[in-house]
Design goal:
- It is a single chain.
- The chain has one helix at 2-17, and strands at residues 21-23, 34-36, 40-44, 49-50, 54-57, 65-69, 74-75, 79-84, 87-90, 95-96, 101-105, 109-112, 117-118, 123-126, 128-129, 143-144, 148-150, 155-156, 161-162, 167-168, 173-174, 179-180, 188-191, 196-200.
- With 203 residues, it is mainly beta.
- It has an 8-stranded mixed β-sheet, with no helix packed on it. Strands 1-3-6-9-12-17-20 form a 7-stranded parallel β-sheet.
- The longest helix has 16 residues, at 2-17.
């Protein structure tokens, strides 16, 4: 049964996505993602499971985007992964909750390690609008990004926001509703707006 399912997925991907989406050997992708734009490439590991809708967004006006998802990935409904001219990499055994946005634009990146839990309605955006000119509306000024790096075994709770240029160490916990504007040490527990360390998993 699994062999037949894998063959069907390979055939369907080739027809529907014209090689935009590449799946590892014999994956068990439970649903097809919706792909917007063509200027990019996505790779999905074995046993990826999508419970609901997953949208992958490329930016045809900009440089090529790249999305790489490891094995045993799970996502819930209304998840958006948007490598709009940037790179998004999610390690093995990742989980992304409903309504979450992960975006990398303008040559920036979002790198997420293994065994990372991203809860519902989290925003991880590796870019900012330029605000340098007061003569040009901000919506018309270019987006620029540095990148966001998240280690392994990290828990990002619901409604958290991770801003561009930060790094989250292995084993850290980001509390619900936190706005992370600076680096988070390994095993730290952070909360608040802006997020501050309130504890450590090391005791």
């Amino acid at each position: 049964f699994y062999l037949l399912k894998a063959i069907f997925i390979w055939a369907a991907v080739g027809i529907l996505y014209h090689d935009l989406l590449k799946l590892s050997f014999f994956p068990l992708l439970s649903r097809f993602p919706l792909i917007r734009g063509t200027n990019g490439f996505a790779r999905v590991g074995r046993n990826a499971r999508v419970f609901g809708s997953l949208e992958i967004v490329f930016d045809d006006r900009c440089c090529r985007g790249d999305l790489e998802i490891g094995e045993h990935f799970n996502s819930q409904n209304n998840v958006t992964l948007a490598p709009r001219g940037g790179t998004i990499r999610i390690g093995h055994n990742g989980f992304v909750g409903s309504g979450t946005l992960i975006q990398a634009t303008s040559g920036s990146f979002v790198s997420i390690g293994d065994n990372v839990l991203v809860a519902n309605l989290v925003t991880i955006v590796a870019s900012n609008h330029s605000t340098s000119s007061i003569l040009t509306p901000m919506r018309l000024q270019p987006e620029r990004g540095v990148g966001i790096r998240i280690g392994s075994d990290v828990w990002i709770a619901a409604h958290a926001v991770l801003t561009d240029g930060i790094e989250v160490g292995d084993g850290a916990v980001i509390a619900a509703g936190a706005v992370v504007t600076r680096n988070v040490p390994k095993y730290a527990i952070v909360a608040g707006i802006p997020a501050k360390q309130i504890g450590s998993r090391r005791g």
